[in-house]
Amino acid sequence: MVEAVLIDLFSLPANLQSNIQGLLHNTLETIEKCSSNHAPCVYVMCCQRQGSERKDEQELLFPALSGFQSLNTRLEVIGAQSTAAALYTIKQRLDEKDLSIIKVILPTIRKDLMKVYIDHLFTAVYQFEFEDLQVVSDCESLQISEPQHEGQTLLSQDVALIQSEIQMYLESLPSLKGELTILRSSLIPDDIFLHGFTTRTGGISYIPTLSSCNLFSSSKRRDPQVVVKENLRRLANAAGFNPEAFHRVKIDHANAVCIMGKTAPDNYDGIVTNQKGVTLAAPGADCIPVLFADPVRKACGAAHSGWKGTLLGVSMATINAMVSEYGCNMKDILVVLGPSVGPCCYKLPHESAKEFHRIDPKCVRLFDSANPYIDIRRATRILLERGGILPENIQDDSITDQNQNITFCTACHPDKFYSHFRDGTNFGTQIGFISIKN
């Protein structure tokens, strides 16, 4: 069942401008007639010209809106200066109400354009169908059907213009939840390396569990890639790295490692380089973002270490890649564990807990319970030390000076960090990043 209807009147053809009220009235009449049991939310999208003395489209629509009692509280006119701005505002309304099934009623000539906007501003969480504005006439129009595919395709320059419009609009949005904050380790020398761990503030993501500097997009979440890209651009400006030379691990919860400059595996949880100006990153939203730096050989790496990756030794696999590829010495490599879920909050089923108990009994609390508490940070340290990393070259939550601690529990600090464990499936993601300075 359709949950929302979007009527696109943003750029009507000239021959329809004079009949805009009639078109809208007829469309709303059909929607009301077909949805007596469940009235969908209706959004009318139109142009709002800045500084115009004549009545704009938004003002011309109001007479056509009266009389629709069942839609009265669920109907809203969204006026904006660009399609990107109007559609992004409507997306916010949909997300506030957790709506995902949307019918778009629009002029035929706008259909291909609208699909490009939707592809960029929405994810696979949403379902769209399209209907011609001129042919809304019966109840069948509100049934879900396959999207129509037009034979005409947009020119590449048209798509580029739409992308530019979206980017410019997102860049104009204010940061949410405060300024962008980066946590840095005193262990990694800042004269050689640029590095940090992000928090959740300073971006534009507005959905509560993703707000505000979410740095990961997927088909299962409501934050589109363009929003994540804008968050990354703001991070890059604040941190001082080039977002076009940014490489994030492709998570598989395993121990494969990518060597920059060589053919990459399809998926990998570790990545290393000795190239200057290339920023490596590992995400985390409970899993540990781990950074590696060798100031002697001037090489670095990043790894994503969840409980599976920890057991599979992803951190040592990343270090071994640095040793074999760049001639690094174990005693020179520095390792920093970023914000991640702590043993205060993280539980695993007893069978999985056994694997951590074998590493060291101190990695498990309440071992005899059905779901013991697990310390994946301690397990990571133990495996690193066994692999040859010096204890003093590892920074985690065991640090003596708590003013220097950056390995906070993500689940315990909802104001600072995202947490899958705490927030559920539509969770945001922070990252750890590192590069060798030019």
Explain the overall architecture.
- By secondary structure, this protein is α/β, with parallel strands linked by helices.
- The chain has helices spanning 14-17, 20-34, 57-61, 83-96, 111-121, 156-172, 225-239, 307-311, 314-326, 350-359, 376-387, 420-423; strands at residues 4-8, 41-47, 75-80, 101-106, 127-132, 182-183, 193-198, 246-248, 257-259, 270-273, 279-284, 288-294, 299-305, 334-337, 364-365, 373-374, 394-395, 430-436.
- A six-stranded mixed sheet has the order 9-10-13-12-14-17. A five-stranded parallel sheet has the order 3-2-1-4-5.
- Helix 5 (111-121) crosses helix 6 (156-172).
- It is elongated, with a radius of gyration of 26 Å.
Number of helices: 12
Could you state the CATH homologous superfamily of the largest domain?
CNF1/YfiH-like putative cysteine hydrolases
Series of H and E elements: EHHEHEHEHEHEEHEEEEEEHHEHEEHEHE
Question: Helix coverage percent of residues?
Answer: 25-40%
Calculate the mean pLDDT score and round it.
91
User: Under the CATH scheme, which architecture of the largest domain would be assigned?
Assistant: 4-Layer Sandwich
Record the strand order, biggest sheet: 9-10-13-12-14-17
Low-confidence stretches: 135-151
CATH structural fold name of the largest domain: CNF1/YfiH-like putative cysteine hydrolases
Cα-to-Cα separation, first versus last residue: 56 Å
CATH class of the largest domain: Alpha Beta
Task: Tell me the major beta sheet.
Answer: 6 strands, mixed
Number of strands: 18
Q: Give the count of structural domains.
A: 2
GO molecular function, one term: copper ion binding
Keywords: Acetylation, Cytoplasm, Endoplasmic reticulum, Hydrolase, Immunity, Inflammatory response, Innate immunity, Metal-binding, Nucleus, Peroxisome, Phosphoprotein, Transferase, Zinc
Main location: cytoplasm
Family: Belongs to the purine nucleoside phosphorylase YfiH/LACC1 family.
